[in-house]
Design goal:
CATH topology of the largest domain: TIM Barrel
Strand content: 5-15%
Helix content: 40-55%
Oligomer: single chain
Strand order of the largest sheet: 1-2-5-6-7-8-9-10
Distance between the termini: 46 Å
Bound molecules: S-adenosylmethionine, iron/sulfur cluster
CATH class of the largest domain: Alpha Beta
Shape: globular
Radius of gyration: 22 Å
Length: 498
């Protein structure tokens, strides 16, 4: 299918609804005030150790930090204080998320794109990119591998911005994914939560997307620094409109999507500025809609085909600074889910868990149509960027267990209304943990019986026993119901949740 240029230009010209930007501004201004951010970063450098320790206590109470307080943490360089920040971040994470890690896989459905983000392998001007949009049969094949062989229950589906993968395609592809059911050793595998990483949409389109039952809707601002944003996103493209992107989550909330994900592509501009602006975005959503983002992402810029990486050397984020970004986010917005992707190496991902990360992808492939291929080599021409960690889900689960973490495949939240404000309130009160713990064990049992290698299963069994015992002691009032669900799952029933 080819699309003539006139039709494409027409499509492009109708994407942005100026009224769905202007209505959210205050006095014609957006909420990113660069002077305010720069001044706050400066003032953060003046804070003493006692003040910082006070902030750590505030995080431990699972309260958001203000911009000024976040800036103070960003400025910390003293090794002793940094190590106290690390200790606190881990305590905060344990308090909110206990010892659970959520796993998922990205599924790239189409890499056609009308935009020209300079750093991205999918940009329209990259003539060397091999373009593809998966049809329904190809989507089914991808999901059969993800849900039937690897054992994923959650996906993040990823799309370029193009008439070929417009809202109609997005909706159809999500429906197709939810419909796939694959026989497994003891039961069946299927995808139960589809999160979406897609371009910004109008409220009307977002309402339609919400109608198919999505999990989290993610749009990363990439950089909040306007001059940089305009330089890397050419003005004559849709993505060249900073404000259209900045207010995508405001429109999502208005459309009824209350699990949203925001993020920065670190390495485009000074990380301190973008980190503080990301926290500002989170606070703005919370102030306006009563809910902050469900997740934050903090990808670092990776080499991509024809991206001319040397241009970005100036703001490259070192591993040390990257770890500090994770730490500060965990402390500043303590209840928010934090995602680290397989862009990062195994070593960094391993370390990030104790700093505050709660979600990770595994068995990742990012070429369009790559999961159905046996070949494990990365496919440069079809990928958006190059991956740092290609380990399997089974390998990751083994590693988590060695670190004392269990993997949760629970997708109950959005299916029984524990989303948005409801889930955030439960997380703040530490009560979501109860549902999550029970569902994590039940779904982990499913995965072990259906997909684990024998070696992994043997390693995990004692951990499951320990977790069940913990439920018996901590939640005696629901233990019998939980045990019933657990035993039924062991016998082959699937998708039971509390
Ligand atoms: N096309 C949509 C958009 O841009 O919002 C969604 C999909 S895009 C493929 C998802 C994210 O990939 C972008 O928001 C950007 O942060 C990230 N990305 C693009 N190029 C990258 C690179 N070279 N290294 C790391 N991440 C990159
Ligand atoms: Fe297109 Fe997204 Fe890549 Fe930009 S980042 S070129 S919008 S796929």
């Amino acid at each position: 299918m080819t699309i003539c240029t006139d039709k494409k230009n027409d499509w492009i010209s109708q994407r942005i609804r100026q009224d769905e930007i202007d209505k959210y501004k205050t006095g014609g201004k957006d909420f990113i005030d660069e002077d305010e951010i720069n001044k706050t970063l400066e003032s953060g450098k003046q804070c003493d150790a006692e003040y910082i320790r006070g902030l750590l206590q505030k995080s431990l109470r699972i309260e958001n930090l203000t911009l000024e307080e976040t800036a103070a943490l960003i400025a910390v360089n003293d090794p002793q204080l940094l190590s106290e920040m690390k200790e606190t971040a881990l305590k905060v994470k344990k308090k909110v998320y206990d010892n659970r890690i959520v796993t998922f896989a990205p599924l790239y459905l189409g890499n056609y794109c009308v935009n020209n983000c300079l750093y991205c392998g999918f940009k329209e001007q990259n003539a060397d990119a091999q373009r593809k949009v998966l049809d329904s049969q190809e989507i089914i094949k991808e999901v059969e591998v993800l849900a039937g062989k690897i054992g994923h229950k959650r996906l993040i589906v990823v799309y370029g911005e193009h008439p070929k993968n417009d809202i109609d395609y997005i909706i159809e592809s999500i429906r197709t994914i939810y419909d796939v059911k694959v026989r497994t050793r003891k039961g069946y595998g299927n995808i139960r939560r589809v999160n979406v990483n897609a371009p910004p949409f109008s409220i009307e389109d977002l309402k339609r997307m919400n109608g198919v039952g999505i999990g989290t809707y993610q749009v990363f601002q990439e950089t909040y620094h306007k001059e940089t944003y305009n330089r890397v996103h050419p003005k004559d493209t849709i993505k060249g409109n900073y404000d259209w992107r900045l207010y995508s989550m405001h429109r999502a909330f208005e459309a009824g999507i209350d699990d949203v994900g925001i993020g920065v592509l670190f390495g485009l501009y000074d990380w301190r500025f973008d980190l503080l602006a990301l926290v500002k975005h989170s606070l703005e959503l919370e102030a306006r809609f009563g809910i902050g983002p469900h997740t934050v992402s903090f990808p670092r810029l990776e080499p991509a085909l024809n991206a001319n990486m040397e241009k970005y050397e100036k703001y490259r984020v070192s591993d040390e600074d990257f770890k500090k970004i994770i730490l500060v986010l965990r402390l500043a917005i303590p209840h928010t889910g934090m995602i680290i992707s397989a862009r990062e190496t195994a070593k960094i991902r391993r370390e990030s868990i104790d700093l505050g990360v709660t979600q990770m992808d595994a068995s990742t492939k990012i070429g369009v149509g790559s999961y159905q291929k046996e070949d494990i080599a990365q496919d440069k021409e079809k990928q958006q960027f190059i991956l740092g960690d290609t380990r399997s889900l089974d390998e990751l689960i083994c590693e988590f267990v060695e670190k004392g973490y269990i993997t949760s495949f629970c997708t109950a939240g959005y299916r029984c209304g524990r989303t948005g404000k409801c889930i955030m309130d439960l997380l703040r009160k530490g009560e979501e943990g109860k549902f999550c713990k029970l569902n994590a064990i039940i779904t982990f049992r499913e995965w072990l019986d259906d997909f684990a290698t024998e070696e992994t299963r043997i390693k995990v069994e004692p951990i499951i026993d320990r977790e069940i015992e913990e439920v018996r002691v901590k939640y005696p009032q629901v233990f019998d119901m939980f045990k019933d669900y657990y035993e039924r799952t062991k016998a082959g029933e699937r998708d039971l949740y509390i």
